[in-house]
Amino acid sequence: MMKTEDYCFVCGKQNPVGLKAQFKSTAGKSYAELRLSKEYQGWSGIIHGGIIAALLDEACVYAGNSLGYNTVTAELRVRFKKPIEPEEKILVEAEANLVKSKLIEARAKIKDSQGDLVAEAQGKLIIKEKRE
What global pTM score does this model have? Predict the structure, then answer.
């Protein structure tokens, strides 16, 4: 059986078709800088909205997990503000806060190379377990 560790579509280094985003996270915050290639476009010259949503989701989870938990997304609401082109440098950021014993709320955003807002999201994460 093939091992699938490090095969996350968004952040896995071993996934040959993944985004390979390298998130840094601590104390309820996460961020990553990257460029998305043309393979991830929807309409010609515009990165697909599903790819943008996946990055926002991943940022929320990294922020939530940095609070000392393993989490999964229960809900994600995304608002798209403007399109981005392939190879444009973007910054993905998120912040998470423990709300209840089994729930973390997170907010994420993506900005383009000029600092303009591309998309933002609100997420709810379910705590699966506390990390040791």
Answer: 0.94
